[in-house]
Amino acid sequence: MKIITAAEAGALIPDNATIFLGGLAVSSLPEEVLKGVEKNFLDTGHPKNVTTWACGAIGNSKDAGMVHFAHPGMIKRTVAGHFGQTGAEMMKMVFDGEVEAYNFPQGSLSHLTRHIASRSPGLLTKVGLGTFVDPRIEGGKL
């Protein structure tokens, strides 16, 4: 197994990538890697137009987690089951329409992640029907 630095990990992410962020708030969060991704973007302008995917909230609302993606051009879209610790900078970008954001039920996202990992063809659920996450209503778009 090859061991690389956080900066090297940050440089491996291509433009337009989708990144899954595990953990909840700052528990099990790969914070140093996220700092490396941010540093790489600030130094080189890459990766750009990233999509982040998380089952729960990622960060501490101040200086950890999603705040490292809160740069115009770096993030295109974010999908999460909770946005409570996302941070003011990121939420401003969402509310200003600079970042597409989708909020889906945490449990459904967790199950979908498991289905993706097992190469299942998909997940059908009735969770969220009749609410803002229903595709016939708002489709979870913030």
Record the strand order, biggest sheet: 1-2-3-4
Low-pLDDT runs of 5+ residues are none
Helix content, binned percent:
25-40%
Shape category: globular
Please, how many helices? Answer: 4
Rounded to an integer, what's the Rg over CA atoms? 15 Å
Query: How would you sum up the major sheet?
Result: 4 strands, parallel
Structure description:
By secondary structure, this protein is α/β, with parallel strands linked by helices. The protein has a domain at 6-101: Glutaconate Coenzyme A-transferase, CATH 3.40.1080. The protein is 28% helix and 13% strand. The protein is built from four helices and four strands; from the N terminus they run αβαββαβα. It has helices at residues 6-11, 31-44, 88-95, 106-117, and strands at residues 18-20, 50-54, 75-80, 100-103. Strands 1-2-3-4 form a four-stranded parallel beta sheet, with no helix packed on it. Helix 2 links the parallel strand 1 (18-20) and strand 2. The protein is globular. The chain starts with 5 loop residues before the first helix and ends in a 25-residue tail after the last helix. The mean pLDDT is 89.
Please name the defining characteristics of this protein.
142 residues, alpha/beta, Glutaconate Coenzyme A-transferase, 4-stranded parallel β-sheet, 4 helices
